[in-house]
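Input chain follows. Return structure tokens only.
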Amino acid sequence: MTYTISITPRSEREALIAKRLEASEEFGETIYDFRSGTYTPKVVSLPINVLVYRMENCRTFSAQQTEIAREGLPKDFFEKGQEVTTAQQAQHEILAKLAKQGSESVTPIVAVLQEEGQRETLLITSTGVIVNGNRRLSAMRELLRRKDGSIDERFSHVRCAVLPSDVSRDEVDDIEADLQAKRETKLDYDWIGDAQLIRRQVGKNRSIKQVADRLRRSKPDVENVLQALDEADLYLSEWIEKPGEYDLVQAGQQIFGDLPKAIAKKDANLQNASRAIAWSIYENRDKITGRVYRLNPAFGKLAPKVLELLDDQLELPSHEDDEVDVEDFSFSIDADDTVQDFTAVIEALRDETERDETVITLVNACETAIELDKGQKNEEAALKALAQINSKVTGLDVSGAGLRTIPGIFKQIESIRNGLDKIETAVNERRASFEETGDGEE
């Protein structure tokens, strides 16, 4: 059964903590780089129900924003919910879920606490707000009541190290950043939470270099993390129209991280089209055979060729005489009228009515562009690519095809037939050029 939050008024919490601090003679772990020096906090024992979760916790940022978006909650539901029971309860459920997560090399926090009890102190403010140890507190609260209804007294009270009463919000943020910089804690954050922590640090009018130094990371790494988060925000708000649902981009750390560099030197229209390719690949990753990141060149240097192949294979209408309406693509940067318009391709990739067929065509275009690029360095690449295509076509089984897919199948067959005609024409031209120059092999 989920632990039920009951908030102790702030004034009562503060008075209790102050009284126990006065009586305490125990000191916790020293905090470094605090106010240009060090600080060693006193440790006190507090009832488990007295403490409150810190809402500005980058580890839970992604889950918070997703819940706000999906449940239609006010945007400041968590931000202003520090002393609100409903917000604290929602935060508890998020943290309790995180506390149960683990991997092959990492044992879930709740399992460690159940076996060993509390070993490390939590770090709190003088008002009982958890600065470090939110997940551990949620796990202990879940373990407080056993399955038979009895109380596990190991978790009735929690040992906490207390920060100075005048600690500021910025100082608390910096402590979180310093803890994140430690090697053993870095993996605890998802990439969105990590990016939000960096964004918050930059928001304090600190330079990228200053933030990188604090987090013990390189300046390019910090810059890329921020750009990746911007691309994720753009994807959520403009492509799938689900702003704030960060759970939907958790699996995209690599593709959103690679995208900024891939589009950096392109004009605005090509940037938008490259994004459309990348976003389409990401949202259809479960339908793609093999490793998705192998297609990354398709939205990078090979994007123009992929777009050319898509335009041809999808038989898209011409937009040469149309004016580009920037309002239709709110993720567009100011368009340059002198460059090519990829509106038709973008519209096709966004069209949900023929999504399955378009995805197949997109993947084929990506793979073809990659093989053609390899062909510039390998004279047998074209033959190998055709052999692979032949193998796929030969092994294709349409006996289980559904009635609604048949029109699409005929469309694909026609597209393949037209493509083969063009390939045959190009091969004949290539053979003729060899015969004219006498470069053919004997």
